[in-house]
Write a structure and sequence with these properties.
The structure holds two protein chains of two kinds. By secondary structure, chain A is mostly beta strands. Helices cover 0% and strands 60% of the residues of chain A. Chain A has no helices and eleven strands. By secondary structure, chain B is an all-beta fold. In chain B, 0% of the residues lie in helices and 46% in strands. In chain B, strands 2, 4, 5, 6, 9, 10 and 11 form a seven-stranded mixed β-sheet that branches. In chain B, strand 5 (43-49) and strand 6 form a beta hairpin. The N and C termini of chain B lie far apart (35 Å). Classes of the chains: A mainly beta, B mainly beta. At the A-B interface, strand 4, strand 5 and strand 10 of A face strand 4, strand 5 and strand 10 of B.
Chain lengths: 111, 114
């Protein structure tokens, strides 16, 4: 089976840098994805790591270490609009490809 | 613009009733999914479909049913057998078979049992 754990809430101030961690227990997966969801809205795709290392997309970066069963999303130059929930997700490499989501982290950005 | 349309946005169901949630996409995506989200929790997979006329149960399929008669449409029926249906329901699709293609989600349907 698959299990992905995230901190329930993280707080930060505008302009700061914040890291949202994702630790997982899974028998095998293709890659680690990150999604952002504002309250009452649809999740939107942020990033994907197929290989170990850092992937950078503008202010957001995502990291994966398969040997440590760990990944993180790094948000730089925080803005108020970044206040949202963030989910990590994996696609198990058995059977039909489908996303399994983590528990989610609520990020609160204050002025 | 291409996307996924879910309707209605809000739905109220009486005890014992079946209700159907609509999901339509004009992205020409083969794979479609239904997820359920409870307050403060992650998304859990209900059903998924890779191609027309084929669908598979996800992790929490009991009390739900789906159909995939057209590529564009993947409706979800919440039956009276679902004991705790109040939740936020999200439909999604994906462009390609390879991992790394991000899922596109609809704006969701919030179902409440009254």
């Amino acid at each position: 089976g698959q299990s992905l754990e995230q901190p329930s809430e993280v707080t930060a101030v505008e302009g700061a840098i914040v890291q949202i961690n994702c630790t997982y227990q899974t028998s095998g997966f293709y890659g680690l994805s990150w999604y952002q969801q504002h309250d009452g809205g649809a999740p939107t795709f942020l990033s994907y790591n197929a290989l170990d290392g850092l992937e950078e997309t503008g202010r957001f970066s995502s990291f994966l270490s398969r040997s440590d069963s760990y990944g993180y999303l790094l948000l730089q130059e925080l803005q108020m609009k970044d206040s949202a929930s963030y989910f990590c997700a994996v696609t198990p490499n058995t059977g039909f490809q489908k996303l399994v989501f983590g528990t989610g982290t609520r990020l609160l950005v204050s002025p | 613009d291409g996307g996924i349309t879910q309707s209605p946005k809000y739905l109220f169901r009486k005890e014992g009733q079946n209700v159907t949630l609509s999901c339509e996409q004009n992205l020409n995506h083969d794979a479609m999914y239904w997820y359920r989200q409870d307050p403060g929790q992650g998304l859990r997979l209900i059903y998924y479909s890779q191609i027309v006329n084929d669908f598979q149960k996800g992790d929490i399929a009991e009390g739900y049913s789906v159909s995939r008669e057209k590529k564009e449409s993947f409706p979800l029926t919440v039956t009276s057998a679902q004991k705790n249906p109040t939740a936020f329901y999200l439909c999604a699709s994906r462009a390609g078979a390879q991992d790394g293609y991000g899922y596109t989600f609809g704006s969701g349907t919030r179902l409440t049992v009254v």
